[in-house]
C-alpha cells in the first residue's frame, strides 16, 4: 500500500511542477510580447555572434548545465538575450546532496566594442580565501578601496587595467549596484545576480538596470580607446 501512496505523491509533484512551469511560460510569453521580444524557450543565447562560452566565468561552474526561458530582442539598439541558467554542484560525499543554482542572465551584444575578457563581482569570503591560495586576480595599485570591494579576473591583465580608468573605478565605487556580476567575452556583456532569478513581472525594471551597466561599459571603453 505504501508504494501506491508514493506513486500518487510523485505523480502529484510532477503535475504541480508542470502546471507551475506552464503558468511561468505563459507569463514570460506575455511579458516578452509587451517588451517587443520573442520568447524562444531554449537555444543558444549567442547564436547571432558565436563565442566560446567557456570564456564566461558563469559557464565554468558545476555540471548538468541548462538554459531555459530564453527571450531574444533589442534594447536601446543592442541585441539582447535574457535567459535562466542553471548548473548543479556535486555534494562531493555519500551523505551530501547535489545543489542546483539558477540565475537570470541578461546578455547584451556590442559588436566591435573591443571590451577585454573579464569577470567582475563583489569580493566575498570564498574569493578572498581563493586569492590567498593563488587564485589569480587583477589588482589596481592606486585603488585600494576598489581592490577590497571587487574581485576582477581575466587573461588580459594589462588591457583590463587600461580599461579601468579613474572614472570607471569611481562608477564602481559609487554608482554601480555591487550585487550584480559582470562577465565580458567577445562581443557580449553578461549581467546577472548570482543564484537569483528575475520574475516575469520584474523583467522590464531589471532589464533597464542591467542595460545601464552594459551601456556604461561601452561608454568607458570608447573613452579608453580615444585617450
Task: Give an overview of the whole structure.
The protein is an alpha+beta fold and 227 residues long. It has one domain (2-226). 39% of the residues lie in helices and 26% in strands. The protein has six helices and eight strands; from the N terminus they run αβββββααβααββα. It has helices spanning 2-35, 125-132, 144-149, 157-163, 166-174, 203-226, and strands at 38-41, 63-75, 78-89, 99-109, 118-122, 150-153, 181-185, 188-192. It has an eight-stranded antiparallel β-sheet with strand order 1-2-3-4-8-7-5-6. Strand 7 and strand 8 (188-192) form a beta hairpin. The protein is globular and about 70 Å long. The termini are far apart. The relative contact order is 0.15.
Short overview:
By secondary structure, this protein is α+β, with helices and mostly antiparallel strands. The chain is built from six helices and eight strands; from the N terminus they run αβββββααβααββα. The termini are far apart.
Amino acid at each position: 500500500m505504501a508504494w501506491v501512496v508514493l506513486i500518487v505523491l510523485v505523480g502529484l509533484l510532477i503535475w504541480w511542477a508542470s502546471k507551475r512551469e506552464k503558468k511561468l511560460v505563459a507569463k514570460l510569453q506575455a511579458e516578452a510580447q509587451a517588451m517587443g521580444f520573442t520568447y524562444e524557450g531554449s537555444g543558444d543565447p549567442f547564436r547571432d555572434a558565436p563565442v566560446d562560452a567557456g570564456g564566461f566565468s558563469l559557464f565554468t561552474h558545476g555540471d548538468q548545465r541548462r538554459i531555459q526561458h530564453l527571450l531574444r530582442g533589442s534594447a536601446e539598439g543592442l541585441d539582447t538575450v535574457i535567459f535562466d541558467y542553471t548548473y548543479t554542484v556535486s555534494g562531493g560525499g555519500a551523505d551530501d546532496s547535489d545543489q542546483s543554482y539558477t540565475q537570470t542572465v541578461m546578455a547584451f551584444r556590442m559588436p566591435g566594442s573591443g571590451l577585454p575578457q573579464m569577470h567582475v563581482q563583489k569580493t566575498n569570503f570564498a574569493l578572498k580565501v581563493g586569492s590567498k591560495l593563488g587564485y589569480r586576480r587583477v589588482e589596481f595599485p592606486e585603488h585600494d578601496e576598489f581592490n577590497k570591494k571587487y574581485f576582477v579576473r581575466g587573461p588580459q591583465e594589462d588591457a583590463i587595467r587600461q580599461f579601468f580608468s579613474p572614472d570607471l573605478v569611481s562608477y564602481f565605487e559609487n554608482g554601480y549596484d555591487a550585487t550584480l556580476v559582470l562577465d565580458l567575452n567577445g562581443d557580449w556583456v553578461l549581467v546577472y545576480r548570482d543564484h537569483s532569478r528575475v520574475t516575469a513581472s520584474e523583467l522590464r525594471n531589471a532589464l533597464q538596470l542591467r542595460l545601464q551597466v552594459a551601456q556604461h561599459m561601452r561608454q568607458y571603453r570608447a573613452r579608453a580607446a580615444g585617450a
